[in-house]
Amino acid sequence: MSEYQSGEGPGLNDGVGARMRRFRKERGLTLRGLATASGLSIGFLSQVERGISAIGLTALNGVATALDHSVADFFGDEPDKEKQATVTPLPSHFTLTRSATAATEYISGQQTYRMLSVRGQNLVLEPLLVHIAPGGRREDSYGHAGEEFAFVLDGELLYEVDGVEHRLYAGDSVHLRSTAPHSMYNDTDRVTTVVSVVTPRLF
Predict the structure, then answer these.
(1) pTM score of the predicted model
(2) Which residue segments constitute the domains of the chain, with CATH numbers given?
(3) According to the model, what pLDDT value does residue 73 have?
């Protein structure tokens, strides 16, 4: 998943940044302390808190861990209980998500993440449908725990792994241990759509 991306001015990223600042202050952490705990720079975290820059889900996961919160806490809205109620309870070792069930979506920078599966208590994969808008700042490569898989449904995607760029087209995929520094970027003029599966779960 993307780590660093440019914002589009106050408004789009204010919510995540404002919650980051609030959670940080609730724990009595300075920006320097959060930077040390998350591995991100003080300047970048300051820009995120002020709504100037957006933070991708992978890096946000590191911030969330440092602040003892889930990634979903930074987006504010609780899942719709009525939507959850339409899902028939199943044993904890599997889930069944119907197409008619409204999916939870999260927006971070240029990317919109749609949850493809309801949460399973004993399951570790995070399947997502990701729409990546064109433009935005080219992100820095970043490594983290877990694995990552991306399958391009539509459009093109530049995917960098260990300093080597790979251009993915519809039907192409990449699967890696996320400890390898990686990043992705949409350098075209249209939205790219990707099915992504990551571990550990972000939400």
Answers:
(1) 0.70
(2) 4-75 (1.10.260.40), 86-198 (2.60.120.10)
(3) 86
